[in-house]
């Protein structure tokens, strides 16, 4: 499968070989590369798919509107929450938003009906199926012979809304997160945070994180950076997980400022006030700093997991993967090549064995033939001998008989002669007597 | 698959929405860029040109450093490619640069195969990438990309046009890699000669259908400079890493008795243009073209060669799983067929041999049947003879007995005549007739 190795000498710089460090003695110009990358990416435009999951009434639609400062769900395009649903649905809305010359195709995936039924067993299944089907679409697009654009509709982030009960995670929450944490980046959020006091919220958060750890749920993790400043920020965020949010579609005037908030008789809960809730942190993290990382983790981790599982299944036809772990570094085609080689070797062996058996049988048969030939020959010889002996015997008997006969006949002749003489004498005597 | 089970209400129209404030996703390009910078960049240059034409010098000049390169001899009996990888850094940008030189290019007497090692090397890098891409467990995001992003083709400044090896080589490579032709050692050509040469070279490339790299003009930011540069191709370059004092500055130049050729003086040569285009303006486009065009073409051809199709005979598109499953089925069927073939061959062999052996057996039996028959006959003969003898013996015995009895009676009659009764007389008289009858007969 590889060519050109005859003419290429060693050290071909593959697989992360360290190159020689060289110092530049003057202006070269490739430092401009990032700008080139920047320009091209702006020209291409960006895509992002965000999924929101949670029981109805937790303020998902409101939060989306607040995050993107737009009316994704409006009277003309009512959100799924206003529609009647009998089963869990998965609905997507695509919107194109522009800001500072940057185009973003935003897909919001909503899951109305989740957790609303009396029996919620398997209500996560449609969600899993949706995510898998998007992976499948991408896998097929990526695997085509003719690839042109590869539209990416894979779910890159899942905001999971936890009801503010104040006590801990519900079994449904745990079940859902356990099943989806290896398919999508999960960011758990405490919804309607304005129904808890800061202390209650703190307790609640601690409890939730404890349970998440207990159940070994892998929620989205912020990547380590080398930058000190960034690391400080990341650590601050980590301390406040899960983020407690409040969303609002209404703008209220507070102290002369127009803010998004929720008006209560006792005051206004401001969405963007860091002391009231963690909304700002969420927005900054989700949109302003980690959107690209969410996409990268989806592409490099979750999608790759899906893909390797899918291809391994195809290659091994359901054979237990653990046996073949070491072989996953091959492509299915290389795998088939190897199988073919094995098969050729097996066939050769089989052929040899069959050949051996055949030879042996032929030898046996020939030997048998020879043996029976010898046997028959022997018998023939014996019979011949027998016959000869009998012949001889007969000869002897005949000879004896002849001898006996000859001698007896000779005797008889003498006797006859005597008889004749005797009868003549008797006749003579008779004649004499009569006279 | 899952799509049929899930009730996906796809709101497919893409609505344009107005934002009521600053959301902040305009930082997306910055996020992308900072990630790329953190990862580092790869760039791979292939230099094709005769020995001594100035490839190494140009690289040193271009990157303002000294890349170690042993001088090549003219006696290589085939073209070899020597890649070298370097880690460079300019401001915050880390670049893993691989420079591949063709050693011995143009030195052989028979240059017909000269382009082959180059083609093979380029294909091999595509192949490595494709292999990685097809693996079940793969890591593309930290794969060291060795695919050639740019091929600088060095044209000798002597002569009035392209050499035939230049045309042949560039024609073979133009669908595989981005080619920028450069006229080397431009300081050995006068201005007018250079202009003529450039025009001639470009027209020859056009008339032979060689596709060289065009600087992109879609992006407004760079459209102007790129389109103007396109008209200056091929770039006439001079390389030098020696510093020469010109005026009160130290500049890179080549010192001749009649003056100094300043590398970075745009009146003297196109070096600056090359550097601008190659590194400062279009590096990312070169990388993109390599991946999106040249590599895709290679991949498509390779997959088609291996029998992959996007659509089946009934124009239904295959999913990857279906394709692999189909391939696998085909593969298993073939293996089975081979097995069957072998078995069949064996069965035939066995049948043949059995037939032979049966023949032999038959022969043997026939032979022995024959012998048996012979035996039977002999036995019969013997039996008859025996019977004959017995009969004879019996007859003889009877004769003997008869004769003896007769004799006995005769003797009795002779010695005891008076005592003979008439019965005896009668007996005596009746006997001889019997006696003589038999004796007469027996004497035969």
UniProtKB/TrEMBL annotation, chain A:
Q: Where is it located?
A: Chromosome, Centromere, Kinetochore; Cleavage furrow; Cytoplasm, Cytoskeleton, Cilium axoneme; Cytoplasm, Cytoskeleton, Spindle
| Ranges where the record places region Disordered | 375-410
Signal peptide range: none
GO CC entries: axoneme; cleavage furrow; kinetochore; midbody; septin complex; spindle
Keywords assigned: Cell cycle, Cell division, Cell projection, Centromere, Chromosome, Cilium, Coiled coil, Cytoplasm, Cytoskeleton, GTP-binding, Kinetochore, Mitosis, Nucleotide-binding
Q: Which PROSITE patterns match?
A: G_SEPTIN
Transmembrane stretches in the record are: none
Point to the regions of Basic and acidic residues compositional bias: 375-407
Supply the Pfam families for this chain: Septin
Query: Which residues does the UniProt record annotate as the domain Septin-type G?
Result: 44-313
Name the major location.
nucleus
Superkingdom per UniProt: Eukaryota
GO molecular-function terms, A-Z? GTP binding
Which SUPFAM superfamilies does UniProt cross-reference here?
P-loop containing nucleoside triphosphate hydrolases
Any single GO BP term: cell division
As for family, the record states: Belongs to the TRAFAC class TrmE-Era-EngA-EngB-Septin-like GTPase superfamily. Septin GTPase family.
Q: What is this protein called?
A: Septin
From TrEMBL, chain B:
Select a single GO molecular function from the record's annotations and give it.
GTP binding
Q: Which domain of life is it from?
A: Eukaryota
One family name in Pfam for this protein: Septin
Q: Which PROSITE patterns match?
A: G_SEPTIN
Q: Where is the Septin-type G domain?
A: 39-305
Do you know which InterPro entries this protein is assigned to?
G_SEPTIN_dom (IPR030379), P-loop_NTPase (IPR027417), Septin (IPR016491)
Keyword terms, alphabetized: Coiled coil, GTP-binding, Nucleotide-binding
Which SUPFAM superfamilies does the entry link to? Answer: P-loop containing nucleoside triphosphate hydrolases
Give yes or no: UniProt keyword GTP-binding: yes
Q: List where this protein forms a coiled coil.
A: 321-406
Concerning its family, UniProt says: Belongs to the TRAFAC class TrmE-Era-EngA-EngB-Septin-like GTPase superfamily. Septin GTPase family.
Name of this protein: Septin
Name its species. Answer: Acanthochromis polyacanthus
């Amino acid at each position: 499968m590889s060519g050109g190795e005859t003419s290429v000498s060693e050290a071909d710089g593959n697989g992360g070989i360290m190159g020689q460090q060289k110092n530049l003695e003057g202006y070269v110009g490739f430092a401009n590369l990032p700008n080139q990358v920047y320009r091209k990416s702006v020209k291409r435009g960006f895509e992002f798919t965000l999924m929101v999951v949670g029981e109805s009434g937790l303020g998902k639609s409101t939060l989306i509107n607040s995050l993107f400062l737009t009316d994704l769900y409006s009277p003309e395009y009512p959100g799924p929450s206003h529609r009647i649903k009998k089963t869990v649905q998965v609905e997507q809305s695509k919107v194109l938003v522009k800001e500072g010359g940057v185009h973003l195709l935003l897909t919001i995936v909503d899951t109305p009906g989740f957790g609303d039924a009396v029996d919620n067993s398997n209500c996560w299944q449609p969600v899993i199926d949706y995510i898998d089907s998007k992976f499948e679409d991408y896998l097929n697009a990526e695997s085509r012979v003719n690839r042109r654009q590869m539209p990416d509709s894979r779910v890159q982030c899942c905001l999971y809304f936890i009801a503010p009960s104040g006590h801990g995670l519900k079994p449904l929450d745990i079940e859902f997160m356990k099943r989806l944490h290896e398919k999508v980046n999960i960011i758990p959020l405490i919804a309607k945070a304005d129904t808890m006091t800061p202390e209650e919220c703190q307790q609640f958060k601690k409890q939730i994180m404890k349970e998440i750890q207990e159940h070994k749920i892998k929620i989205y993790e912020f990547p380590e950076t080398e930058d000190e400043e960034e690391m400080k920020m990341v650590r601050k965020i980590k301390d406040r997980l899960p983020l407690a949010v409040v969303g609002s579609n209404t703008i209220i005037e507070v102290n002369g400022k127009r803010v998004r908030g929720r008006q209560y008789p006792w005051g206004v809960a401001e969405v963007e006030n860091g002391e009231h809730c963690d909304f700002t942190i969420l927005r900054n993290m989700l949109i302003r700093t980690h959107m690209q990382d969410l996409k990268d983790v989806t592409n490099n981790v979750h999608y790759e997991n899906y893909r390797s599982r899918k291809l391994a299944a195809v290659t091994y036809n359901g054979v237990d993967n653990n046996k073949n772990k070491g072989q996953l570094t091959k492509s299915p085609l290389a795998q088939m090549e190897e199988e073919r080689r094995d098969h050729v070797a097996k066939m050769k062996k089989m052929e040899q064995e069959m050949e051996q058996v055949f030879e042996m049988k032929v030898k046996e048969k020939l030997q048998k033939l020879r043996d029976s030939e010898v046997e028959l020959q022997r018998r023939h010889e014996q019979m011949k001998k027998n016959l000869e002996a009998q012949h001889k015997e007969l000869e002897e008997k005949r000879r004896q008989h002849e001898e006996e006969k000859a001698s007896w006949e000779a005797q008889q002749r003498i006797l006859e002669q005597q008889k004749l003489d005797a009868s003549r004498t008797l006749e003579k005597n008779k004649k004499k007597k009569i006279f | 698959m899952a799509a049929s089970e899930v009730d996906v209400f796809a709101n497919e129209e893409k609505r344009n929405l107005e934002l009521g404030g600053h959301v902040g996703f305009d930082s997306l390009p910055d996020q992308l860029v900072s990630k790329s910078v953190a990862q580092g960049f790869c760039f791979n240059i292939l230099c094709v040109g005769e020995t001594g034409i100035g490839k190494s010098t140009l690289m040193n000049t271009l990157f303002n450093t000294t890349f170690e390169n042993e001088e090549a001899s003219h006696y290589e009996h085939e073209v070899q490619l020597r890649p070298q990888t370097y880690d460079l850094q300019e401001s915050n940008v880390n670049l893993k640069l691989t420079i591949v030189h063709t050693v011995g290019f143009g030195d052989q007497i028979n240059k017909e195969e000269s382009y082959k090692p180059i083609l093979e090397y380029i294909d091999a890098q595509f192949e490595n990438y494709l292999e990685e891409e097809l693996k079940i467990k793969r890591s593309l995001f930290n794969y060291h990309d060795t695919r050639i992003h740019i091929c600088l083709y060095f044209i000798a400044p002597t002569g009035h046009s392209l050499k035939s090896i230049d045309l042949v080589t560039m024609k073979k490579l133009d669908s595989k890699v981005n080619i920028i032709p450069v006229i080397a050692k431009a300081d050995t050509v006068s201005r007018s000669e250079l202009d003529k040469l450039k025009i001639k070279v470009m027209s020859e490339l056009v008339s032979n259908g060689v596709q060289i790299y065009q600087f992109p003009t879609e992006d407004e930011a760079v459209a102007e400079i790129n389109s103007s540069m396109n008209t200056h191709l091929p770039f006439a370059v001079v390389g030098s890493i020696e510093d020469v004092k010109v005026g009160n500055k130290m500049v890179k130049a080549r010192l001749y008795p009649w003056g100094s050729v300043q590398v970075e003086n745009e009146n003297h040569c196109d070096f600056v243009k090359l550097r601008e285009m190659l590194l400062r303006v279009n590096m990312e486009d070169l990388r993109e073209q390599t991946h999106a065009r040249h590599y895709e073409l290679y991949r498509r051809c390779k997959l088609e060669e291996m029998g992959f199709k996007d659509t089946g005979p009934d124009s239904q598109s295959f999913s990857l799983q279906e394709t692999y499953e189909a391939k696998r089925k085909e593969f298993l069927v073939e293996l089975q067929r081979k097995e069957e073939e072998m078995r069949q061959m064996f069965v035939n062999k066995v049948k043949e041999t059995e037939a032979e052996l049966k023949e032999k057996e038959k022969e043997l039996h026939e032979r022995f049947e024959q012998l048996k028959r012979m035996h039977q006959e002999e036995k019969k003969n013997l039996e008859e003879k025996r019977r004959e003898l017995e009969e004879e013996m019996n007859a003889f015995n009877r004769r003997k007995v008869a004769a003896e009895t007769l004799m006995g009676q005769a003797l009795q009659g002779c010695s005891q005549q008076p005592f003979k009764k008439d019965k005896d007389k009668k007996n005596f008289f009746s006997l001889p007739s019997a006696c003589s009858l038999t004796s007469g007969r027996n004497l035969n």
